[in-house]
Every structure is written in C-alpha cells, then in structure tokens.
Specification:
Elements: H1 28-38, H2 48-53, H3 70-90, H4 93-99, H5 104-113, H6 131-144, H7 146-158, H8 161-167, H9 170-182, E1 186-189, E2 205-209, E3 212-223, E4 230-237, E5 246-253, E6 259-264, E7 275-286, E8 290-291, H10 297-308, H11 311-333, E9 335-336, E10 339-340, H12 345-374, H13 380-405, H14 407-410, H15 413-418, H16 426-434, H17 443-454, H18 456-466, H19 472-489, H20 516-540, H21 548-576, H22 581-607, H23 611-623
Parallel strand pairs: 1-4
Antiparallel strand pairs: 2-3, 3-7, 4-5, 5-8, 6-7, 9-10
Amino acid sequence: MSAPPDKPIDTVPGTAAPKDPAAPKVSEREAREVAEAAREQGWRKPSFAKELFLGRFRLDLIHPHPLPTGEATRRGEEFLSRLRRFCETRIDGARIERDARIPDEVIDGLRELGALGMKIDPRYGGLGLTQVYYNKALALVGSVSPAVGALLSAHQSIGVPQPLKQFGTQEQKDAFLPRLARHDISAFLLTEPDVGSDPARLATTAVPDGDDYVIDGVKLWTTNGVVADLLVVMARVPQSEGHRGGITAFVVEASAEGITVENRNAFMGLRGLENGVTRFHRVRVPAANRIGPEGAGLKIALTTLNTGRLSLPAMCVGAGKWCLKIAREWSAEREQWGRPVARHEAVGAKISFIAATTFALEAVLDLSSQMADEDRNDIRIEAALAKLYGSEMAWLMADELVQIRGGRGFETAESLAARGERGVPAEQLLRDLRINRIFEGSTEIMHLLIAREAVDAHLAVAGDIIDPAKPMADKARAGANAAAFYARWLPKLVAGPGQLPGAYAEFHPSGHPDLAAHLRYVERTSRKLARSTFYAMSRWQGRMETKQGFLGRIVDIGAELFAMSAACVRAEHLRASGDHGREAYQLADVFCRQSRLRTEELFGRLWSNTDDIDTQVVKGVLSGTYTWLEAGIVDPSSDGPWIADATPGPPARENVHRPIP
C-alpha cells in the first residue's frame, strides 16, 4: 500500500518486493545485541514482578495498596466528571464507526477540555493528571469510542510528550509541550514495511548535514500520522567523524517539506483510526530537535513504553466493564426454557468469568499505575504484564459476550437498531479489541521481552557460561560466580510462608472468603516457577532462547500470579475502606480459583506439549510437503508483493495528510 518505486519493477505475484538496498544487513546475533543494548540494564529500584519470577513473593512491595494523594484525586475526579459529560453529549461512537473518521469538532472539543494535555505538566498548559486518572480517562473515552481512546493514547503515551518529559531538553519542553497540551496532535514513527519488532534492520536514515539532519525513508502504521502536527521519528544516523551514529529519536514537524502521507490505512477494527504510511524524502530536521544523544533512540522508545503500555490495559478494563454491563442486562432479559439465560450454568460461567476478570484487570491496572505515580518501584515488568494480560483477557471477555448474545452478538449495532432492537456493538468491540494483542508489542514479543527481564538475574551471573562467543577464561569466572549465587538462592526455593497455614491471615477476615489461601498458593507457586526456570536453563543452556513456547508459558504463569496478588490486595483495600469490600472479596476469590486452574494447566504444559513435533510440521509446511492439503480452494487475495517496496525517494502519491485546524 506504499507508493510505487520511481522505476517500474518486475514482481512475481505473491513474492516479496525487492529489498531496500539502504536497509542494513544484520545477523540474528547482531539483532539480539541491538535489542539488548536498548534495555535498561540495571535494577535501581525494587520490582514485585521481578522478585515473583525469582521465587520471592514480596507482598510488602504492593500491600498496603498504594493510594493517590487527596489533591491528585480531587483534580482527577473533577476532570473525569467533565469528560463524562463530553462523552455522553459530544461523541457519537456509531457515527465514527460508520464514517470511519473522528469528526473535527470532537477533536476541537477534546482540545477545549484539555484532554490532549492530560499527562503534561501544568507549567506547560497541561492538566498534570496522575497515571491512575489518565488511565481512568482512557477507559471512559474508549468505552464510547475506542478510536478516540486510541488517538489520545497514541498522542500522549508514545507520542512526543512522553519522551520529551523523560529525555527532552528544557528548550525542547518549552518549545513543544505547550503546543501539545492545547492543540497539536503527535504520532510515533518506528515501524517500517519490512521492520517490526526487529529494529536492528531499521532502514530510515538521518544523515548529518551541518546543523541539520536529513531524513529519508518510509514509515508504516503511523497511528495519528494522518492528522499529526508533530512526530517522533526513529532513524538511523550513519557513523562518521564526530557522530557515534545509531538509531536516534527526533521531533519532526509533520508539515516539513519532503514529508508525504501516502496512504490512510483501513483495518478490521478501530475504523476511526488516523493511521497511515509516511514517506520522508530529504527532510531537514534541526539538530536541536534530536531527543537525547545519537544511538539512544531505542532506549528512549523502550523506556517510554514502560509506562506508556498501561494505556492499552486501561481501555481493556473499560471494555470489560462494558461487557459485564451488557451481559448482565441481556442475560436477565433473554429467556430460554422457562428462565433467564443467566440462570443456565453454561451462560452463568461466562458471566462469572467476565465479572471476576474485569475485577482482576482493574486491580492489575490500578496497582501498576499507582506504583508508576509513586516512582518507588521499577514497574517495567508489571507494565508489560498488564499489557499482555489485559489484551489477552479482554479479547476473551468480548468473545464470551458475543457468544452470550448469540446471533445478535454477530449482528452489527446498526442492523439491530434498523430492525427495532437495541443497537449493541458487541461484534465491533471484538474487532476493536483484536489489535491490542498486536499494538505496542505483540503477545509473542511481549512473552520474549518479559522472559528476558525475568531471567535477568540468571544471565547476570551465568550468561557467559552459555554464550558460545565467550572465551574459556570468562566462562570459568562466570561458573564461579554462578556457583556462589545458586548456593545462596536455590535453598530458599524449598520452603516459605506459603506452607504455613496461618500466613497472610489479614486476608481472611471473619465472614469473608479466604484470600489468604490464595496468597499462600501464589507464594508456593512463585518458588515452583523459579525452580522450573532454573531447571530449563540447566537443561537447554544456550538453546533456552529458542524455546519460545516454554518461555511464553513461564510468562503466562507469572501473569496469573501477579493478577491474583493484585486482586487480593485490591479486595483487602476495598474492605478496609468500606467500599464494596464483601463483594470485592467474593470477586477476588472466584478470580483466584479460575486463575489457579489456568496456572496448573500451564505448569502441565511446560513439560508435556507438542512444541518439538510442531517444529517438525512447520519445516514440512515451509518446504512444501503439505501443499496437497491446500487443494480445492480459490485464494481471493490480490496480486502484489507480501511487503511493499520502501526504497527511499520522492513520493509518487498524493499527500493525504489532514491536519486539523
């Protein structure tokens, strides 16, 4: 869907486009090294989730539940009240879905509310909301229109404001943040047609030229890019005298000469999303617009995402709440065989799952967000787990809602209303939520990212042992360090508070379900998880990174344990504050029971699975062994390359950039 190249090329239908000659050629090892260099290497603050993966259940890091200040609550609630009125009176979600566009007047209204500056400091004209209330706002907006929620999230969570807040100079903040707080829309441009989660192959270049950089390249899936005023662009600076080079972040004016939005992309969901293909041709950017030093772009992007990822589970929580509301109202109204469908066990189990999971997702989100606001814990794993778990569970809840609604769940809201019934957009929710399993790190990439952080302590002491490139002297030193570490660590995985019947007694108040038993399970299971990880590392050593199925299950177990912990802590907080405590305990109890079943299944699949035979079948599929199985169909796909040509050069399409005045 990108512009055609300057010269005609012969392309066999169904084949990839010619590779961009400017794209760097990198090996698998080089790609891993680039990703590793972009990681935050140290752990300067404690992390509940990191400790959980190491078999240490540090309940003290999350209990008592951290709380926002009174002033933060007052400002947050006041804004939510105004935002709710705006959502109820000014945003027509059905119109956005029908027209596949957010009306200009909606964006103007968001500007008037200050919604573009929710996370920007008041000194720059923003609202300065906490992460907790920013998430509540996204959940509220996303419930009426996920496309509007995505616009606000992309603008503030990964767009220009967040990296400037963390890495920008004072001059950059003074120049750009007031614009972003009141009027300008921002976008984040990293992905390219042939570059997704492997940024080592980034082809867009930024060549130094005097006091400027000259950017050339093509960026794909630029959320907000069609209407953006300011862009964060990741480009590769060539190494040269006086320039260390590397992937670097820039703030770029979207109206700059040489920038062309060549296509507004359309998707199965989020139909109002202003997402496009953006071409840069000899775009001059002042060196003063570079964020951080050369080569720091990926580190800036990943650090920005540490809290930016929380915007997605925020909207997933909002989706869960809406699923629960519709499931409750519909299943009480609809009767089958003489009673409401909710009273039938098959449907009731789905409603229970939706209610319990919504409670747990909100617990995970609020806990992670409040810890981000307090900045006393390192939440890189917690935020990643919230994104992973929220996107997966919200999709399941939406799927269950469609099933509960039956044929009406498959029917569009517009069709339902046209024949006289309530227009419930259940099928739209399913389509809109599907992207969350891909956005900002797919589930598969999140598994690997979290797994890397989870085994960081092991690699710190034993990484050289399994690295084939390390000399024997380094391996010997690593062996001695590892022996000392594991001599201290392994004995602690044998026994713990989870085996003491009276542990965590404050989570079993009189007349309430016993959440203490679930926390004891979490403590025991975290040690079992750590033992399983150690055994796998001992068994596979350097091949561990190829065991992606195993690593994914390890991470999913950790996600369940984190969710159980957050649910129990939230329930006790609500009980202590007198806010629906008894009901919260019941929801936490049923969630933990459901979660424990999933956890035990995952443990079983650690060692009993089809991973090896799956690999053999994949080899057969790719070699053409099973092409006979594809007989008897007609492929409706159009002709064209699998990956569009992204060779740098002048645009060959009309500019569809549509800045909103």
